[in-house]
## 1
Amino acid sequence: MNTVFQSYALFPHMNVRDNVAFGLKMARVPKQEAGSRIGEALALVGLDQHGDRLPGQLSGGQQQRVAVARALVNRPAVLLLDEPLGALDLKLRKRLQVELAQIHRDVGTTFVYVTHDQEEAMAMATRIAVMNEGRVEQVGLPGEIYNRPRSRFVADFIGESNFLEGGSSNGSVLMIRPESVRISTEPRDGLRGRILQTSFLGNQTRVAVACEGVDAPVLASLFGRDQAGERDLKPDQEVTLWWEPDDAVLLPESHSPQEET
């Protein structure tokens, strides 16, 4: 199986076309075939009009796309990308996430994408493997990893979580995502607490609530219609927190990572 580890450093003295051609020259691909494959690779990443430019004449995002073209021109069965967007600013990183996902769909090559950015993993992956100290904790679809984590490590690593100790008599912990936590200012069954802070974050309002018997503040994320009512929530106000039973996940306190296939 042809596997390529993607390196992002380009040869600064070579133009874009020669950078992409480097692997083909090393593999001694015939010149006519190489020319065709270089053109296809540059067109795939949207840089077919930039073949004569030097890397220093390109933006950071364009340089990343040249590096991807240089790997794809070799037609690998598997392409390993190690933190490919880590050095880019947030807006460019999000744009290139979309572009890389489109390239992946177009070429059909398996991408093994290594990242410490949880949001990036959720946005791009069709299947995620979460690793802890070199061992696989859980493998699954993004929705499975987020909504049904199998360990506290996975729940804490992917997204934000509230952990309530003593979920059962056998030493478990209850995990609830902030967006699943509801807030009521009226008396009702639930977890009583006092508002510490409300933070308007644009697309959501984050509310931190101190609850008796819970070490850390419980976080609730309000969106849409619920967010519109956040102006009625004030620091030191007494509230009740509640959630639907299906939104809570019971996790073991400790978990031994087990490699899955």
Note: Residues 21 and 124 are 28 Å apart (CA to CA).
## 2
Amino acid sequence: MTVFKYGDDVNTDLLFPGRYTYTCAKAEEILPHLLEDLDPGFAKSVRPGDIIMAGRNFGCGSSREQPALGLKAAGIEAVVAKSFARIFFRAAINQGLLLVECAGAVEAYREGDTVKLDAAKGEIAVGGKSFSFAALPPEILAIREAGGLLPYARKRMKEAEKR
């Protein structure tokens, strides 16, 4: 697992450049452009299970879905940040992308540290130090487990039809 660490105010244009907004909608079209203006090697080096650590206000900017969709499609296990822009937070939930607010973990992380995350318990270990964060509500965990809001809603509808 690789941890990519970035600073404050990583906006949606840095996550996925706005110049591609109307030409890339599918995950496979978005992936090559993820973070290309901030970290040009990201798209080629990211692997499923990797984590992003970031500062304050991660995902600020426009309300486009492509940044969250792209990070989820790339296999990012979680984005751990000091804080998130609320509109990005919601887009990430819709995609089933795990976001964790934990300033202490971000500040403690040093390159090469191991990171272990337990979203259900609200715990993250960074380099052997343990940090707590607000455990995610069961509904959010269920949306993540289903792969996003639409698959979750479809699953719930099928369950309701069986009753």
Note: The longest helix spans residues 149-162.
## 3
Amino acid sequence: MLGHDIGIDLGTATVLVFVKGKGIVLKEPSVVAIDKVRNKVLAVGEEARKMVGRTPGNIVAVRPLKDGVISDYEVTEKMIKYFINKAAKNSYFKPRVIICVPSGVTEVEEMAVEEAAKNAGAKFVSLIEEPKAAAIGAGLDVYKPNGNIVLDVGGGTADIAVLSLGDVVLSDSVKMAGDRFDESIIRYLKKKYNLLIGERTAEAIKVEIGCVYPQAEVKTMVIKGRSLNTGLPQSIEIRSDEIMEPLQECALTIVDAVHNVLERTPPELVGDIYQNGICMTGGGSLICGFDQLISQKIGIRAYVAEDAVSCVAIGTGKALDYLDKLESSSRSSKRFRSF
């Protein structure tokens, strides 16, 4: 079998892998379990996620990506190698790879991603900005001289980009996304109820009852944690309308970033965007009422794309069609700038 062409949505919270001709073949958490004593990787992805908060002292479950970029190079390399090998397990040749990066990534951070992928076994590496991939995956017609804006809310960053004629006109990236929403829930419960909960519980609260805009139906959820007063396990019932307070603080930071991008957008494209609306992608966009909050604050209709979580991976997969042109034009890794 010939080498595979692979697209990787290297997210802070989740990694999605797209193989040309097959679609999305992997979707696993960006977590690696390491034995500190033997300096050995024990598990990657879903298996490693199950170890978070439940490991003995010599085993640590780490997330090697922080705010959308590499924070631990060696562990990231091993994680990428694991996903490439799993996706291309029947191939005798090294795969060509396109990897998503946040729009605000620096040149040094780009090089780190490229080198990690090459050392993990990739024959050729190209990068694509997350909002551009999200726009393609969401089905927006970005090739026309028509303005579109995409807000991709992932685990580590929220990326905003205005696109026209197949490229990014201007963009911004803020380190306020899914992880910060979880952290705000943890702080809120600690302050109000003296209850300490873990990341997984915070994420479950966000997904099940989290909202950033008043809803007609108030949801409730029983959660368990450790009382900071007694040090013993404790369970309480919380309501969606009270969780809205900490989540809305984070959401408004993202709204401000969208507003700032629109302020810098050429007037003609703003007119197009007003007509087309604000396309929201990424897992963070699924928080209840997020589209309503943006619509109210910005004054432009916001909507969540179909299959919002997979948009970036799908867009990266579609970009694989251009790999032959990219590889022939440059033997070194280059940012995937045009379609």
Note: Residues 36 and 58 are 5 Å apart (CA to CA).
